[in-house]
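Hi there. Long-time user, first ticket. I'm pasting a complex I've been working with (about 372 residues overall). I'd like to know whether the download I got is complete or cut off, because the file seemed smaller than I expected. Thanks.
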Amino acid sequence: MRIGVPKEIKNHEYRVGLIPSSVQELVHHGHQVLVETGAGLGAGINDADYVAAGASIAQGADQVFAEADMIVKVKEPLAAERKKLRKGQILFTYLHLAPDAVQTQDLIDSGAICIAYETVTAANGSLPLLTPMSEVAGRLAPQVGAHSLEKAQGGRGVLLGGVPGVPAAEVVILGGGVSGSHAATIAVGMGAKVTVVDRSADALKRLSAQFGTAISTVFSTRAAIEELVRRADLLIGTVLIPGAAAPKLVTRDMLKTMKPGSVIVDVAIDQGGCVETSHATTHADPTYVIDDVVHYCVANMPGAVARTSTFALNNVTLPFALALADKGWKQALAQDAHLRNGLNVCEGKVTCEPVAQAHSLEYVKAESLLGL
Ligand SMILES: NC(=O)c1ccc[n+]([C@@H]2O[C@H](COP(=O)([O-])OP(=O)(O)OC[C@H]3O[C@@H](n4cnc5c(N)ncnc54)[C@H](O)[C@@H]3O)[C@@H](O)[C@H]2O)c1
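Hi, the file is complete. Here it is re-exported in full:
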């Protein structure tokens, strides 16, 4: 199969769909890989690295889209890229179609086979191609929070780990899932006093087993959150109710009780945020202040560490990319129900129920398209 890797064109997107070791694996399986010139530069990968791995370099996106049987990307295709897709071509990338009617219609019109990273599942019910980005965002949260606590950034001038004779900062993490537990790992490592709040007894048990007495775990109630919000120097929001908007656990009234210069990092902002005063920000202008509280609400935090994120993403996407290339999409999807769950749009039909519902479009089961 001919696999194409275009350069990402979304604003401030520096990740790339395939890294050289993934290219090498695909080439070893007998496939050809065409990478757009400069596609890896944002992640610190040169054209020469791709050539050494066995790829060819294309001078522009037009050639990549025209020649490839499968396009492997990171972000959803923008309008200019969607125009280049063709019937029967496989698109393997993040899509996030439910809130995007225009993209959904363009993908339907393209006739391409569109497989979304974010809806591929695993046997334990998780979303394995989303997990690494939650890990990255979780680990970044204490780092950006610590920076925002610095006086020059509008923070209260508190060092997360304290120093001998001066207490460490109090870090409160709302939600102890993937992002929350990774945030706790880094906050503990930086010497902070860490409390994690979750409403799942299983999550609290898991955290307690992982961290022992290095953190406190608290069951999520309004009263508990009120008390912890008042005490926090750094509040990190990582709650998720799958498929739903994030619950607003921190209200405007609670914000008024926070210490001046304290910091909120609302990782859950991509689902609307779990703080009433959160609104999405960008890496170019990541913070704003309300009621003397610094808010950091960047919706694509992993983009800040494009290289780590690219490698983490490839670790989980490569086995699926190989299956699609080796077997062809029909057989690969027929044999793997979890990969099949990633199929969102196929040859003009919407095969992901929530996407069909969101846009009042006809839903066709992937199984019926595949004759299963
Ligand atoms: N901003 C970014 O760049 C970025 C990057 C990656 C992920 N995210 C987002 O981070 C969020 C968390 O993702 P995740 O993979 O860690 O999810 P997860 O499902 O692993 O964890 C969410 C946790 O929230 C808990 N929770 C739900 N409701 C709660 C409540 N009322 N009180 C306390 N805890 C509650 C759940 O029990 C669960 O343990 C998601 O919205 C995800 O999209 C954002």
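A couple of notes from our side: The chain has a mean pLDDT of 96. The chain has two domains: 2-119+306-370, 131-299.
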